[in-house]
Amino acid sequence: MDRSWMYLAPRSSQTFVNGVQTFLNFAFERACVNGTLIKCPCTSCLNMKYKSRQTVHHLICSGFRPEYWKWVYHGEGTTVASTTTTYDEEEEILRHEMHEMLDDIFETEGGIGVEMHETASNNSEETNTRRSEFDDLVKEAEEKVYQNCKYNKLSCVVRLYQLKYLNGWSSKSFTMLLEFLKDLLPKGNLLPKTTHQVKKIMASLGLRYEKIHTCRNGCMLFWDDKEKDEVCSFYGSSRWKVHEASPEDEESPPKKKACKILRWFPLKPRLQRLFMSSKTSNLMNWHHIDRVKDGKLRHPADALVWKDFDEKFSEFASDPRNVRLALASDGFNPFRSMNSSHSTWPVFLIPYNLPPWLVMKQPNFILSLIIPGPNGPGNKIDVYMQPLIKELKELWEDGVSTFDASTKQYFQLKASIISTISDFPGYANLSGWSTKGALACPVCSFDTDSNWLSHGRKYCYMCHRRWFPSDHRWRSDTISFVGHHEFRVAPVPSSGEEVLQQLDNTEFLVDKDVPGPWKKKSIFFYVAILGAFVVASQS
Fold first, then answer.
1. What are the helix (H) ranges across 398-502?
2. Nearest alpha carbon to residue 385 among 342, 349, 424
3. Which residue from 391, 430, 432, 383 is spatially nearest to 233, judged by alpha carbons?
4. For the chain, which end, N or C, has fewer CB atoms within 10 Å of the first or last residue's CB respectively?
């Protein structure tokens, strides 16, 4: 349609007034939020604030923002044929993508949330800080790298940073590239010159993490009510690294450095981000809406663990947007050298709500903890998992208010761990059941059948015939096997109640050798989802 009236017709003319009414009808049919709000495209709001129809009508006084020929923020498609795409259209599409990304990230601070919760957030210092960050990023989304450049500063930085990580460039090589591009582009360009400057911009887009000091022996965290402690509560070891004093340091003592630092990536904002993005919010409902329910196992939602969980916790299962998580952990040597012994343990969370072709893809893994080395945490992994467990308990009991981009409404998001993923030694660390020795099998539990090989000096487990059908011919085969018949039935896995009874006299954290297969009471047993964890761990 002819839109020359937007900038050529006098705003007092009937042509402009009729054009504004046409725009409002178009926008409220296609891009209306909650039935009452659209982004205001006036010269002040710049498509950054949601307003009602009555408020947006001030376009007659203020006029439209410059060069808004294509109404991409109000439901008009951004995809055009490549043969007809003009430079200005490509530039507008790129700008729209950057603003759309900012809306996903700052939804509650810079968009709908400000209109809906304005009175509650006026006095919030944190909200004001986030608004300031949002305004800075909006400015960078509008600034060109240089005059007549297709890319704005923000889209250029995001693209370069993406290339850095896709191709594994080091920070040094990336800085060298930036310096070359800075010199290559026209004088006065806005391209950052160092990797550090790029990271400062990207930090505002990303999700933050927290550093928590830990005891050198992994006995405790200097966190929560013990955040200001200087020594370990168990053995009195110092929180700080010891530096030998030198005469030069007498006037300016060196800055204290923690012996160990746990990196904690809070879970709540990362789950909220999944629903704030219009591209992933619908996918989080795939297991309920689009999954084929024909009895075949194609997705974790088809498994008995998921179904049993839904039966036990029907209130949680009533909202399919509530997130089911798997927890995975293992150690690795980050230095790529077998000559040095070092074990760092990341802890990942995997949202099982996603479709099967996405659920196990690396971009959808949620990094929760990085447990420092040089030694693996062993049974003390529970010490490091306290921040995560506390957050999981809050997500189970109260949830967190989350904006759903697909419905344009807020809901109370809850989450739960329904299974764990680890190797056998890692299973021992997470569950507390020792996976070595005479009772190594956590499913057979105390009914494990094992024999000590005196010459091989290790245990051997030869009871596999117990799982055959009762009339199987191998049960009576005494020649091929250990010389006797096998008529025993397969052991029955312990129920959650039985596991709790076995752990009655077991402590939460154990720093000594304990007789028996249970070495500790796992921190998972202190979460409200105990029943689900026991079902998952025994399956």
1. 424-431, 496-502
2. 349
3. 383
4. N
d(CA 229, CA 215): 11
**Residue 481 carries which side chain, given as an amino acid letter?**
F
Phi, psi for residue 205 in degrees, rounded to 5: -85, -30
Q: Which residues contact 103 (CB under 8 A, 6 or more apart)?
A: 110, 111
Long-range CB contacts for residues 34-37, cutoff 8 Å, separation at least 24: 34/112, 34/408, 34/409, 37/112, 37/115
Phi, psi (deg, nearest 5) at residue 483: 90, 10
CA of residue 387 relative to chain centroid, distance = 15
H/E element holding 309?
helix 304-312
> ∠32-33-34 over CA atoms, to 5°?
120
Q: Could you tell me which residues come within 8 angstroms of residue 305 by beta carbon, excluding any fewer than 6 positions away?
A: 418, 419, 532, 535, 536, 539
Average pLDDT, the chain: 80
Pairing of strands 323-329, 415-421: parallel
Q: Are strands 260-264 and 409-413 parallel, antiparallel or unpaired?
A: unpaired
pLDDT in tens, 362-381: 888 999 999 998 888 988 89
Phi, psi angles (nearest 5°) of residue 6: -60, -35
Instruction: Pick the most confident of 32-36, 72-76, 244-248.
Output: 72-76
pTM to 2 decimal places: 0.71
Can you tell me the mean pLDDT for 407-431? 90
Q: What distance in Å separates the CA atoms of residue 70 and residue 77, rounded to the nearest whole number?
A: 9
